[in-house]
Amino acid sequence: MSDYTLETEEGRREALRRMLTIREFDTTAGEYFADGEIPGFVHLYIGEEAVGVGACAALDPDDYIASTHRGHGHCIAKGLDPDLMMAELFGKRDGYCNGKGGSMHIADVESGMLGANGIVGAGPPMATGAALTIDYQDRDEVALGFLGDGAVAQGQVHEAVNLASTWDLPAIFLVENNQYGEGTPVEKQHNVDNLSDTAGAYDIPGVTVDGMDVTAVAEAVEEARKRARAGDGPTFIEAETYRYRGHYEGDEQPYRDEDEIERWKQRDAIESFKGRLIDRGELTEEEFEDLRAEVEATIADAVEYAQEAEPPAPEEAYEDMFGEPVPEIEAFANRPRADGGAKGGDSS
Amino acid sequence: MTAQAELEQQTETRTVREAIRQALREEMERDEDVYVMGEDVGLFGGVLEVTGGLYEEFGEERVRDTPIAEAGFVGAATGAAATGTRPVVEIMFSDFMGVSMEQTMNQMAKMRYMFGGKTEMPVTVRTTEGGGMGAASQHSGTVHAWIAHFPGLKAVAPGTPASAKGLTKAAVRSDDPVFVFENKMIYEQEGEVPTDEDFTVPIGEANVEREGEDVTVVATQRLVGESLDVAERLDAETSVEVIDPRSLYPLDTETIVESVRKTGRLVVADESPLSYGIHAEVATRVMENGFYSLDAPIQRVGTPDTHMPFSPPLEQEVLPDGEGVRDAIERIA
């Protein structure tokens, strides 16, 4: 089983903690991006926490996930370390990718996290590939590929789902329908009522669930996992959710209005799950505030870790290209630095 | 390893096609995590018959027919390689690589680097190249410069049966993504191939196929054999050294430059389009490392920036061959 499951009180509290951690991590990342301390682009997961956490609660720690450009939430849901994540966002050597990946490429294959991905629709082929390894080596895991609603229009997604279905691979495809593909509403990108209708073309189950409900997502993924493990092939799940922030930080969002955002916030995944736990007598308001304070401290520590971490040395740009290095790159790595060079003569 | 040393091993006569098939068979026997996948590689035996018989020998789990979906199966192979198996993918004709370039460029090539070196990528992609069959522009491309140019990928291109076997085995054993570019016009070419199951051709090592004093010809794939024939014919008047780089990336600069230091003259013969390609790279490296050794302008033999046309007289017009190599040698010798 997962290291947290919605079937136990302890696991439900852990799920709540992870959702809060995602929100705090991304809120903080947005602030440091605005301040200019985090370079590049960041795409925040705020609002969508129930999808990543629900999915990972239904997976085993050894299962694989392949992520999207909006991957911070998947990493935290999967159990990655916020310190190393934040250090990666800050471009530090101690980040998950030694400062070579950044927000859009956080990966930790050992933890089953096959990478956030800057290419829309690239995760599902990766999940199909991981499922191929699992099947080929007769292992017990499954591989779940996250994708956005925009990615459902990508050809490689359909090729990956078709392959996984044809070969009965233990794969799960989970669409996070956050209603917008970058700045274009989902209705303008697809001509089907539900994106899960796609599954019909591959003769696999397609289900649409409430992506603001962590339990609903977990149940759908649990069912898909059982199917995958039984050798019955993949499931295509659509989770209807909403991103509270723009496509990227700095997006002025001319494509939607505040009223719409407020309507979705009424169904906030963290608030509703918290309410349910209180109703069940498993949580008090006070305990929730304690949990929030604990999470805030965790993320503040992560920022401190990231700020104090060493940046990579320039010559590290030449490392990690190949397992068996090539002279072409070695020559750059080993060249005398800032020496001006000599004029004339063969340089070898 | 020099040609001489290779031939001192125990050998048998094999075609390029048989040599590649033997390499795959040996590597699948050696390592259970190695399997072959691609369009019609199984029961059909491969449209150019390279994988013939492997399905019967290893079964459908290890010789996997895929849908006609290059992006899907190249992507799946990439994900599979990142998680612990060693897929060998066949792309039927290199022209079809266009369909899968996203997974090749943005995933396979970049994952290791972007993940800070924490992923290996032991995937081999085999594909066929070249004109000469009247197969027209969408089945005759020679695109290896794309891959050789793109950081994170290794590219090899055998010109002899021995290289074909040794490079294929080295590619399968490599923890890096390696593309093996097979010119389909030399599948029937015979030669001596080492029988030792551990014989490999190290990626990044050129081979001096023929020693000479007056002109260096760096030739790839089909043009290796054609250049050797030309060298024999010219032997009385010009002593030609023929080098097969075998690996296009990494490229064995040292062997090539050393040869030019001796001969002072260079012809680069490669079937890919002339602009911005392998020819330019070999020439540049010789300029950077052996400029003062050059006694004549470098000559390029290749496809004149056209696609491969269909009609035989058109195809023969643009397809580089031994005559083109001879003309180039004669211009500078």
Tally of separate helices of chain B? 13
Number of helices of chain A: 11
Mean pLDDT over all positions of chain B = 96
Q: Distance between termini of chain B?
A: 28 Å
Largest contact between chains: A-B, 56 and 57 residues
Percentage of residues in DSSP E strands of chain B: 15-25%
| Sequence of secondary-structure elements of chain B | HEHEHEHEHHEHEHEEEEHEEHEHEHH
* Rg estimate of chain B, integer Å: 19 Å
Describe this structure in words.
The complex is a heterodimer of chains A (348) and B (333). Chain A has 348 residues and is α/β, with parallel strands linked by helices. Helix content of chain A is 41%, strand content 9%. Chain A is built from 11 helices and 7 strands. Chain A has helices at 9-34, 49-57, 72-78, 82-89, 123-136, 155-166, 214-229, 258-265, 269-279, 285-308, 327-333, and strands spanning 64-66, 143-148, 171-177, 180-181, 184-185, 206-210, 235-240. In chain A, the strands form 2 sheets. A 5-stranded parallel β-sheet of chain A has the order 1-2-3-7-6, sandwiched between helices. In chain A, helix 1 (9-34) packs antiparallel against helix 3 (72-78). Chain A starts with 8 loop residues before the first helix and ends in a 15-residue tail after the last helix. In chain B, strands 3-2-4-5-7-6-12 form a 7-stranded mixed β-sheet, with helices on both faces. The mean pLDDT of chain B is 96. With 333 residues, chain B is of the alpha/beta class. Chain B is 37% helix and 21% strand. Chain B is built from 13 helices and 14 strands. In chain B, 60% of the residues are buried. In chain B, strand 10 (215-219), helix 9 and strand 11 (240-244) form a beta-alpha-beta unit.
